[in-house]
Specification:
alpha+beta; 3-stranded antiparallel beta sheet; two-stranded antiparallel sheet; globular
Length: 124
């Protein structure tokens, strides 16, 4: 039972308690297991953008990424990445990151690549 706050003129004023909440990115119909997180297309494009000049971007099924040397075949916990993206062909044609993250053709290309490899991704 919630105690009432005594205020003159009111018989019972309930105390409202708000608990801190955290937004969880779990779309309807998808279940993420411990250690996994939903991949977001624009976040991956930003990481591809940042990888320019340093190597390729490897993306694993748990949402983690790593910049790797060209031609390298990385393993993480014995698993190969879902996809390896080459930054220069994908984003070098854009003068600003915002243009790349809002280009529908690039967004669809990243999403298709991840989904065809068996991963889950959402635009965000």
């Amino acid at each position: 039972m919630v105690n009432a706050l005594q205020v003159p003129g009111y018989r019972h004023l309930p105390i409202i308690v708000t608990l801190p909440c955290r937004k969880v990115d779990i779309p309807f119909g998808h279940v993420l297991f411990q250690g996994q997180r939903m991949m977001h297309t624009r976040e991956i494009i930003q990481k591809i953008w940042d990888a320019q000049g340093y190597g390729n971007l490897a993306v694993w099924d748990d949402g983690t990424t790593a910049v790797i040397a060209p031609g390298e075949s990385p393993q993480k916990d014995g698993k190969a990445p879902l996809a390896i993206f080459k930054p220069i062909p994908l984003v070098a044609g854009f003068s600003m990151l915002d243009f790349a993250t809002h280009d529908t053709a690039l967004l669809e290309q990243i999403e298709t690549t991840i989904r065809e490899a068996g991963g889950e991704i959402e635009r965000g």
